[in-house]
Amino acid sequence: MAQAAIQNPAFFDDGAAREALESVRWPDGPVCPHCGNLDQEKIAKGQGTAHRAGLYYCAACNGQFTVTVGTVMERSKISLSKWLFAMHLVGASKKGMSALQLSRMLGVTYKTAWFLCHRIREAMTEVNPTPIGGEGKIVEADTTYIGGREKNKHVGKRKAGNIGGAGKQIVHTLVERDGRARSEHIANISGATLRTVLDERVSRKSTLMTDTAGGYLHVGKEFTRHEMVDHGKDEYVRGDAYTNTAEGRFSLMKRAVYGTHHSISAAHLSRYLVEWDFKYNTRKNSDGERAALIAKGIEGKRLTYRPTNGNHRSTAVH
Ligand SMILES: [Zn+2]
Q: Which of 82, 156, 167, 273 is 20 to 30 A distant from 49 in Cα terms?
């Protein structure tokens, strides 16, 4: 399977890449990005000149367009086949892919690979996320700490005072059992912060499963049911009350972060979490379907993210 995917001509040939992108973005034929016309009788394919491959004319507005108009790829110097190959590689990697790995696989500079990685993560961002959970659904909520010197210690061996200490970032996740996940980088675990997180991301009709962190106490009462397991008393499972799904995701994430990326700065953590959730939420999709979702997600996001300079900081807001 992987072998076949790697031999996909769209990963080497720009013409094939363009056709693949067209079939993903326009399953029912080209759509004019200027006026929205999708009447195929009013759209004509240009006579393929090398400098404007894939050009279409729209008779409704007399405009011209290609499949990349309005996408991050429009003015990119990166070839379309490399874009598609990168979407496939990043989408298919179970543990995530560093810019260094991607640069080697694609034969592009580190800077280009870095740019691709972040654009692809941005494409993984859900545009209008709906709350997870609901009637009859169970949602686990949990937090973990990432970064800092305590990272390799088992939770029980950490000193309480060190948790959340300098250099550590807090990640919160919500996982619907057999469903979707929503994760974010949070500043603290106060009741106010956790309430904001839960308000936006999970239906109150759900059953909520947490540990005994104080921040969940009040907001938990607003759910159909709220069960807590007391890790401090070595209680991890009590009937259907547990947070093992969330904890399992955290341990995989830490292995991926430390194994693949070695470390992730606070500034990039939320983008990494987008990728982490995307992979989880598409875990039943094939690699090809995941790459197609990325290709679709990349449209219309051209202006939302712009690297400011070589130090890899950005003004992105998710
Ligand atoms: Zn038009």
A: 82
Separation of 139 CA from ligand 1 center, angstroms? 45
CA of 14 to the centre of ligand 1 (A): 25
Radius of gyration of the chain (CA): 22
Q: How far is CA 301 from CA 26, 212, 233, in A?
A: 17, 40, 47
Top CATH class, 138-253: alpha beta
Task: Tell how far the Cα of 64 is from the centroid of ligand 1, in angstroms.
Answer: 8
Ligand 1: centre distance to CA 65 (Å): 8
Residue with tokens 């067209």: 22
* Cα-to-centroid distance, 127 and ligand 1 (Å): 25
| Nearest residue to 32 (alpha-carbon basis) of 56, 8, 49 | 56
Tell me how far the alpha carbon of residue 7 lies from the centroid of ligand 1, in angstroms: 36
Provide mean pLDDT across the span 299-312: 43
Q: Which two tokens stand for residue 134?
A: 């609901």
CA of 58 to the centre of ligand 1 (A): 5
Residue 234 contacts by C-beta under 8 Å, 6 or more apart in sequence? none
Give 48 Cα–ligand 1 centroid separation in angstroms: 19
At 5 the pLDDT is 60
The H helix count followed by the E strand count for the chain is 10, 8
Dump pLDDT digits (tens) for 150-209.
444 455 444 444 444 557 899 999 999 999 999 999 999 999 999 999 998 999 999 999
- Given CA atoms 281, 287, 293, 295 in this order, what sign does their dihedral have? positive
